[in-house]
Amino acid sequence: AGEMLLAAAGLAVFVYLYLAGAGRWAESLGEVLGSVVAMLAVTTLLTLVVDESWGTLYVYTAAAAGLRFPARFNWMALLAIVALAAATLALGGSDGGTILAIAGITFGIGGMFVMIGSVMQVNAALREARSELAELAVAEERLRFARDLHDLLGQDLSLIALKAELAGKLLPDRVERAATEVDEIKSLTRSALTRVREAVSGYRQPTLAQELAGARMALEAAGIELKVGDPS
């Protein structure tokens, strides 16, 4: 009865640790390592105290380690688990055939999960690299757009500022010349707005609400009140 209770409790703990170590519960390498070490302790205890057949749990432990350990030492961890399995079975009095069978299966299944884990880690690294490249592409596009706007507006804005300053100096003595400068400022402003709209037409798609807001501001500046209602 005592051995059955120990086996049931040990199996429940092992399943929990397996899910925590090989599943998605463990987030850090420390958590995975702790789960695998605890699984080895439970497996070793059950194999020595209850029955040698519990040595098959080393297979699941090797699978968890191979799947979740980093590629830099997952093979070393697998060899250590195989060695521990063989030593535990030998200490428990198992025959050579049983030791060889369990150790061989542990190595084979563990090696398969090592390769699966390596592929998963490579894929994760590739996804992260693609995400970083996409962010860099967005940042580069924003820089390009900013440079284009500077090239488009820099000269026009400088000229508009100079003409506005000149028009201010001409008033009130030379009204006609000042009016001419103001007309040129309007022309330059319209030209600059046109180029900006052409530049952003492929960069940002305007919405109806944004266009209505812009039209309202323009009409209000001209002294015209805009009212939008339901045509029905």
Tell me what you see in this structure.
By secondary structure, the chain is mostly helical. It has seven helices and no strands. The chain has helices at residues 2-22, 29-49, 57-68, 74-91, 96-170, 175-200, 208-221. It is rod-shaped. The mean pLDDT is 81.
Q: What's the short story on this structure?
A:
This protein has seven helices and no strands. It has 232 residues and is mostly helical.
Descriptive tags:
232 residues, rod-shaped
Write the layout of secondary structure elements.
Layout: H1 2-22, H2 29-49, H3 57-68, H4 74-91, H5 96-170, H6 175-200, H7 208-221
Please summarize the sheet with the most strands.
none
Tally of helical runs: 7
Taking all residues together, what is the mean pLDDT? 81
The number of strands is: 0
Stretches where pLDDT falls below 50 for ≥5 residues?
none
String of helices and strands: HHHHHHH
